[in-house]
Amino acid sequence: MIKRTFTTPWHDYELIDAGNNQKLERWGNVYTIRPEMNAYFEPVLSKKQWLDKAHFEFIESSSSAGEWKTLQGNLEHDWQIKFNNIIINLHLTKFKHVGLFPEQRANWDFIADNLQSGDRFLNLFAYTGVASLVARDQGAEVLHCDSVKQIIKWGKENMESSGLTDVHWVLEDALKFAQREIKRGKKYQGLIMDPPAFGIGAKKERWKIENKFPELIEAALALRAKGGFIIANTYSPRLDAERIRQITSDLCNGEKVQVTTLSVKSQTGKILDYGLRTVITGS
């Protein structure tokens, strides 16, 4: 049984309940119901209790899109929450996401505990940048790389809302950028990457994480400074913990590798398991 790394709730976020392939969450004073394929069990609260709490429910029209239904109140579709010193701008998107993956809190805490002012930090496949801003708040020099222009814009808005400056924003394919950084001789005290499980690249090339993972780890190891750390989040049943351990064993000579499941426990006691979290540390 693979160990779990639990993400704890904070003042502005908690998982209330989960089940029947959905989850009920609180984001500040906004409650949402969203699809969740990992919630294959029965919830604790009734559907009526969920609907009495929730302001918005995401209704799927396909496996990757849908629309939000207003259940009660007249709340805006855009609002802010806070994590420590970071202000996060949230928005109800047509892809069921709101701009934050709260199970990542365990990674944010790790980054805050393991970076010092002046360290260099690289965030690949960086999304809206909470990990980048946590690192910047520690005084690190931060490079944030994502291939989606709108996501980079969202990250910049989070930086400005948080009163931070000087994150280096890179609009580029993350793996290609990492490989160019290797050629430039760059080193980073910390790296985090959150690659997609699958996708189609700008030149119609197919991306499958089970094929790309060794290349990503190899690049991260080449970029990591002595004594630094690597965090890799993966969300694919085709890349299980055994396969990750095999890949890292081949590439990480004497490094400490820890593979756990990123998990969140609901207020009602249900446990949601998300992707796998691989942390590599060494001398």
Automatic annotation (TrEMBL):
Protein name stated in the entry: Class I SAM-dependent methyltransferase
EC class (word): transferase
Top-level lineage group: Bacteria
Keyword Transferase found: yes
EC numbers, comma separated: 2.1.1.-
Residue ranges annotated for the S-adenosylmethionine-dependent methyltransferase domain, each copy included: 63-217
GO BP terms in the entry: methylation
Keyword Transferase: yes
InterPro entries from the UniProt entry: Glyco_hydro_b, SAM-dep_methyl-trfase, SAM-dependent_MTases_sf
Keywords from the UniProt entry: Methyltransferase, rRNA processing, S-adenosyl-L-methionine, Transferase
Organism field: Psychromonas arctica
Alphabetized GO MF terms: methyltransferase activity
Pfam family, one: Methyltrans_SAM
